[in-house]
Amino acid sequence: MPITLRALLVVAVAVALALAGRAALGRYSRPEWVAEAQPTADMVIEAMAALYGVLVAFLLSGAWERFDQTRGTMMLEANAIADLGQVAALFPEPLRDELSAAVEAYRVSVIAELPQLAEGGRSTEPDAILDRLWRILAGFEPATPAQVDLQSRAFDAVEELADQRRFRLQAIRRTLPPILWVILVGGAAAVLVVVASSSADGRLPAVYLALLSAMISFALFAIYALSNPIRSGLAAELAPFLEGLLRGLPDGALYR
Q1: CB half-sphere exposure, 226, CA atoms < 13 A
Q2: What pTM, to 2 d.p., does this model score?
């Protein structure tokens, strides 16, 4: 399911639950109780909303930074692939063809692995190809100083490739601590319960409650999606980004 539809589904479910909870509170609460608690409820809502808003804004900012770091890591990995492909084109045959084929195989395997990472799996093919690249370069014996420099640059590109892959896989395993999710979800529930209990009558308060629940649920989903860009489905957007970056090289010289 596309991530946009998943977000809309989460928002719809949250709004439905909030309105259902409001209807249940309205059935069992008396108007005089609501009127008596209104002044206190207003102060509590104001304090809770301010504290919760600051927490959500802080975590949302951190989640976006994490997503941007993941995207930056993938860009560095793509640049390392491009650099290695360009260096490979300067080697003599048959090393040139063998090395270029391995670089292309790595690119394809990384893009194909993204859906597996989104499902919690992992492919061993990219790691096997990296090992193959190391062996290909280690088995080459330079005949000129220029070839020595090319081999050194190729080793540097493979090392960068391996480093960025490790960084990307480690970033996938990083998640928000469970205690933060308890605070986020519990805080959202507390804010919505107080709002619903203090506005049990009237259609306009129901609209306000629906809008508030939609905003909170969308913010929580955004924090989850940005904190887990691969598993949340944002990999579907990162894959074309990676592929487009590589295919956008001039004249397609990378894989000739």
Answers
A1: 17
A2: 0.67
